[in-house]
Design goal:
The protein is 51% helix and 14% strand. It has 221 residues and is of the alpha/beta class. Helix 2 runs parallel beside helix 3.
């Protein structure tokens, strides 16, 4: 079972999310929090697999709560950040803190459930509607890096294709369709790309691709 904590200052949203999770055989909602401080306290007490935090909460906002949760010694909870606001600075802070996802509340319910499963597996993702723009900007403020780092030579041509598709916010299903292979094959390729490049998850693979200028910017440079 994937144990989930829900943190949002709107009781109706928490109630709807709990009802959604109750329809899933592999989820259980172990707790709720109505503000950021309570989210930090309850995460430490309950140790859920995934904590879903709203950005805007009283007493302590969701980003500060994310930073506190993930900085706690011995923490093994993955954090998904939800928001109705498509704001660059939110994504930067979430990524820097180590959040496993940044998602808009407009996401379809089944996609949100899928995102929780992704986080529970130890992977990460950003809402596809904001990935390319925001990660490109995020990567732009990192230290300059060589366009062709030596570890790229470890990738096969197919693995490099997968890296570029990841950088364009493609899901495993979309990559499978474009490469005419099965999703299990894609998962294997993604795992090998991350391992060879020493990256923790697919979000960092996207940042890596932009940082090393493997993806053209919006002007085609």
């Amino acid at each position: 079972m994937i144990r989930v904590l829900l943190a949002d200052d709107h009781a109706m949203f928490r109630s709807g999310m709990r009802a959604l999770l109750d329809t899933q055989p592999d989820f259980t909602c172990v707790g709720e929090a109505s503000d950021g401080r309570e989210a930090v306290t309850e995460t430490a007490r309950l140790r859920p697999d995934v904590a879903v935090l709203d950005v805007r909460m009283p007493r302590l906002d969701g980003l500060a709560a994310t930073e506190a949760i993930l900085a706690a010694p011995g923490n093994d909870t993955r954090v998904l950040v939800l928001t109705t606001y498509d704001a660059d600075e939110y994504v930067y802070r979430a990524l820097r803190a180590g959040a496993s996802g940044f998602l808009l509340k407009s996401l379809a319910p089944e996609e949100l459930v899928a995102a929780m499963r992704v986080a529970a597996r130890g992977d990460a993702l950003i809402d596809p509607s904001v990935t390319r723009r925001l990660v490109a900007k995020f990567a732009a403020v990192l230290e300059p890096a060589a366009a062709e780092p030596p570890e790229l030579a470890r990738l096969t041509s197919r693995e490099r294709e997968v890296l570029l598709l990841l950088a364009n916010a493609c899901s495993n299903a979309e990559i499978a369709r474009q490469l005419h292979v099965g999703e299990e094959t894609v998962k294997t390729h993604v795992s090998r790309v991350l391992s060879k490049l020493g990256l923790p998850d697919r979000v960092h693979a996207v940042v890596y691709a932009y940082r090393h200028k493997l993806v053209p910017d919006e002007r085609g440079a």
